[in-house]
Design goal:
C-N_Hydrolase_sf; Nitrilase/CN_hydratase_CS; 13 strands; hydrolase; Nitrilase/N-carbamoyl-D-aminoacid amidohydrolase; alpha/beta; Carbon-nitrogen hydrolase family protein; hydrolase activity
Length: 311
C-alpha cells in the first residue's frame, strides 16, 4: 500500500508581514512534521496573506485611491522572490524533515523585467529540498486583476515527489477546463487545490476535479479576520466594530478519487489538519473513467500547452 500522510496548515498568516508569516509557517510546518505529516499544504497566497479586502471594502476600485495604493505597496513588500532567502527556508525544512511542501505565495521579481508585478504563485518543494514546480495563476479572478499579473503555462504540470506525483491549481483555475486537462494529462496522483476559503462552490470544484481526474485532492483554505484588513481601507457597515469576525474561514478538506470526502470541510477554527491517503485507490477508480486514456479521444481532439515562462 502506497500511503501518504498529508497535512493542511489551516492557520492565519500575519497579514502582509513577511518575516512574521515566515516564522509562523516554519513553526507549523515543523509541528505538522512532528505529528507524522509527509506532505504539507499552505493555502492560496498564504505567504503573506490573501487580499480578501478586495471583496469587502467598498472603495478599492476608485482610481488613484491612496489607501489602496498603500495596501498594494504592503502586498508588494511582503511578497517573495524566487529564488530567494524565504523559499530557501522552506527548502531547508523540507530536506531536514523529509517532507513535501506546497506553498501559496505572493511573488515578485525584484530585478529585471516585470519587477513591478505581483504574481499569485503555488510552489512545490520535494522532500530532498528541491523546488520542483513554480506555478503562477493563469488568470487573476475579477478584482484580483487590480493587484496581480497573468501567469503562464510553465508550471502547468505534475511533478514527481517522494510521495507521489503532485499537481496544483489556484482558485478559479479549477473552472478552466483546459487547465484541468493539462494536469490530468501529466499523470497526477495528488492534486493541490488552494483557495481563499473552500466554501460550497469551491468544494464542488474540488470534488469534481477529484472525480474527473481520478486523483486525490487536497483543498486548502485560508484564515483571515476583519482586523487583518490594511489600515486606511473603509470597512462596510456590517463589519465595523467586529475585528475578530472571519473574512476567510477555512473550509479545508481532502477528497478521494471517487469524489467523496476523506476529511470533511473544517470551518471557523485554526488547526493543523491531518489525514492518510492510499494512492493505490486511484487506479481502482480509473477502471471506469480515465480522461487521459480510454475516456479520451485523441483522434477527435488536439490539445497542447505552451509552457514558456513570460518573465
Amino acid at each position: 500500500m502506497r500511503s501518504v500522510v498529508v497535512s493542511i496548515i489551516q492557520q492565519a498568516p500575519i497579514h502582509l508581514s513577511l518575516n512574521e508569516s515566515l516564522e509562523k509557517a516554519l513553526h507549523y510546518g515543523n509541528e505538522a512534521a512532528k505529528k507524522g505529516a509527509q506532505m504539507i499544504v499552505f493555502g492560496e497566497t498564504w505567504l503573506s496573506g490573501y487580499p480578501a479586502w478586495l471583496d469587502h471594502c467598498p472603495d478599492v476600485a476608485l482610481w488613484d485611491h491612496e489607501p489602496v495604493k498603500e495596501a498594494f505597496a504592503k502586498l508588494y513588500n511582503s511578497s517573495i522572490s524566487i529564488p530567494g532567502p524565504e523559499i530557501q527556508k522552506f527548502q531547508q525544512l523540507a530536506k531536514k524533515k523529509k517532507i513535501v511542501i506546497c506553498l501559496g505565495a505572493n511573488e515578485v521579481r525584484k530585478t529585471g523585467k516585470g519587477n513591478g508585478t505581483v504574481y499569485n504563485a503555488l510552489l512545490t518543494i520535494n522532500a530532498d529540498g528541491q523546488l520542483v514546480n513554480h506555478h503562477r495563476k493563469l488568470m487573476p479572478t475579477y478584482t484580483e486583476k487590480m493587484l496581480y499579473g497573468q501567469g503562464d503555462g510553465k508550471g502547468l504540470k505534475s511533478v514527481d515527489t517522494e510521495y507521489g506525483r503532485v499537481s496544483g491549481l489556484i482558485c478559479w483555475e479549477h473552472w478552466m477546463p483546459l487547465s484541468r486537462q493539462a494536469l490530468h494529462d501529466s499523470g497526477e496522483e495528488i492534486h493541490v487545490a488552494v483557495w481563499p476559503k473552500v466554501h460550497e462552490m469551491h468544494q464542488v470544484a474540488s470534488r469534481q476535479y477529484a472525480f474527473e481526474g481520478r486523483c486525490f485532492v487536497i483543498a486548502a483554505g485560508q484564515m483571515m479576520r476583519v482586523k487583518d484588513v490594511p489600515d486606511g481601507l473603509k470597512l462596510p457597515d456590517h463589519l465595523i466594530g467586529k475585528p475578530e469576525e472571519f473574512l476567510l474561514n477555512g473550509g479545508s478538506c481532502i477528497i478521494a478519487p471517487n469524489g467523496k470526502f476523506i476529511m470533511e470541510p473544517v470551518f471557523d477554527r485554526e488547526e493543523i489538519l491531518m489525514a492518510e491517503i492510499n494512492l493505490d485507490d486511484i487506479y481502482k477508480e480509473r477502471m471506469t473513467l480515465d480522461v487521459t486514456g480510454h475516456y479520451a479521444r485523441d483522434d477527435v481532439f488536439d490539445f497542447k500547452v505552451k509552457r514558456k515562462r513570460k518573465v
